[in-house]
Design a protein that fits this description.
391 residues, alpha+beta, DNA polymerase, domain 1, Beta Polymerase, domain 2, 4 domains, two-stranded antiparallel sheet, 11 strands, binds 8-OXO-2'-deoxyguanosine-5'-triphosphate, binds manganese (II) ion
Length: 391
């Protein structure tokens, strides 16, 4: 006779990137709770705790059926004491007091509202909260100096906090496609980020742009941006140029996990399909405009109705074709998947993966280079081994 309690009910590989995870989540109540705690940790600048909760949530997302008892979770990876305590609480009492009190805390609410402004991160939000700013009205009244991104973020706050639909993503795809084709025939765009993973909505739309002939993509982004600007499609944009080859000794790994592709963080002005106002009294923008004073209006000061549009966050990235496979993989996400894939490559395969390349660490030759900060720093020069491995 088998003792049921000792048989592991589920088997889940250690790294998130080794698991098949569909959009179908059988444990949404539990993963929502853990994701909320992850978000709270991230907004409190506690990334380590954030990753721990994200990993725990990812394990539950990969399970083929709902969990009914913590006993079923025995032997599963990434479930630390804290996460298990939360899960147990919810399974036994229907909710976790820690999750409830976090959700209802004024600080968490303020952090969410303020970091919900495009261009505002956890550190800025924390500083504002310490200055007594907890909401958008207080921010406006405070006279705080906002940078250009934050000004645009505040101005379009209501639109940008509404999820972007797949239809809207496709409509933007058509515009970007036209822009790219006009400035460089033959260049290709690929939808990346959450929509490439099959999500039905997202917080933004991400596109990767390349050209089948190596080098033709150089200088492409400013042309695409000018085209979009000339047609009135951009409410905001900030372009950052490619810095991959800038370091003196050729490709080096960037300091953070940011890559070095030429990119553009933008806010699109997406024309909306005309809807007869009488038949749709509760269109999205109509509602929001009534409830929030900070909206980007569809109506001019004179009250004259203008063409309807909505603001959408769009990220554009340009990669040379030789790095396209890595860029595509690196920008498809999710953030946890990418993180786990790199950790798995490093720890289990002795390789180092970025959005630019995959290196074999066993062929590393270490040397010294002068960094821009004029400090001597050890940088490993690695042999690129396998563009072909990924394709
Ligand atoms: P969402 O927009 O639907 O909310 O989700 P998402 O599409 O998964 O999130 P995202 O914030 O738009 O990010 C999309 C992917 O792009 C994600 O896997 C992480 C990746 N990414 C950035 N910035 C950078 C970066 O600087 N370098 C690299 N390599 N990847 C990045 O967002
Ligand atoms: Mn995205
Ligand atoms: Mn994005």
């Amino acid at each position: 006779q088998i003792n049921e309690a000792e048989v592991a009910e589920f088997s889940v590989p250690t790294y998130a990137c080794q698991r098949r995870t569909t959009l179908e989540n059988h444990n949404a109540v539990l993963t929502d709770a853990l994701s909320l705690l992850a978000e709270h940790a991230e907004l409190s600048d506690e990334d380590g705790r954030g990753v721990a909760f994200r990993r725990a949530a990812a394990v539950l997302k990969a399970l083929p059926k709902p969990v009914t008892s913590v006993k079923q979770l025995r032997g599963l990876p990434c479930l630390g004491d804290h996460s298990l305590r939360i899960i147990k609480d919810i399974l036994e009492n229907r909710e976790s007091s820690e999750v409830q009190s976090t959700k209802q805390s004024e600080r968490f609410k303020a952090l969410k509202v303020l970091t919900g402004i495009f261009g505002v991160g956890a550190k800025t939000a924390d500083r504002w909260i310490r200055d007594g700013i907890n909401n958008l009205q207080q921010l406006q009244d405070s006279g705080q100096t906002l940078n250009r991104a934050q000004q645009a973020g505040l101005q379009h706050y209501d639109h940008l906090s509404q999820p972007v639909t797949k239809q809207e993503a496709d409509a933007i795809g058509e515009i970007v496609e036209e822009a790219v084709a006009s400035v460089l025939p033959g260049a290709r765009i690929t939808l990346i980020g959450g929509f490439r993973r099959g999500k039905l909505t997202g917080h933004d739309v991400d596109f990767l742009i390349t050209h089948p002939e190596e080098g033709r993509e150089v200088g492409l982004m400013p042309k695409v941006v000018s085209w979009l600007e000339s047609k009135g499609f951009l409410l905001y944009q900030k372009t950052t140029r490619n810095s991959y080859l800038e370091s003196k000794d050729g490709p080096a790994r960037p300091a953070s996990n940011m890559d070095r592709f030429e990119r553009c963080f933008s806010i699109f002005k997406l024309p909306e399909e005309e809807k007869p106002a009488a038949k749709h009294p509760e269109t999205l923008t109509g509602n929001v405009e009534q409830s929030l004073p900070l909206t980007s209006s569809h109506v001019s000061a004179e009250g004259e109705a203008l063409k309807r549009w909505r603001a959408v966050r769009v990220d554009l990235v340009v990669s040379p074709i030789s790095q396209f496979a890595f860029a595509l993989l690196g920008w498809t996400g999710s953030k946890l998947f990418e993180r786990e894939l790199r950790r798995w490559a490093g720890h289990e395969k002795a390789m180092s993966l970025s959005s630019h390349a995959l290196y074999d660490n066993k062929q590393v030759e270490t040397h010294f280079v002068q960094t821009p900060s004029v400090k001597k720093k050890r940088v490993s020069k690695k042999t690129k081994t396998c563009s072909s491995m990924m394709t």
